[in-house]
Amino acid sequence: xxxxxxxxxxxxxxxxxxxxxxxxxxxxxxxxxxxxxxxxxxxxxxxxxxxxxxxxxxxxxxxxxxxxxxxxxxxxxxxxx
Length: 81
Known about the structure:
Oligomer: single chain
Structural class: mainly alpha
Helix content: 25-40%
């Protein structure tokens, strides 16, 4: 998402929330992910209000397409062999 112009946490330029009031995502990903066994991986995506509701000139359709593009890239990097 950073490569598409979004401020993303975590990312190479912003590796942790650094006290920024972000959710850790720990419960959902630990409870439903495969870290401790199982075959289903889990991800959690938090999106800021302005992109969810089209505020401040943000377009939800553009954001959705960018998110989908980013997810496809992630799957290609981490799951294709």
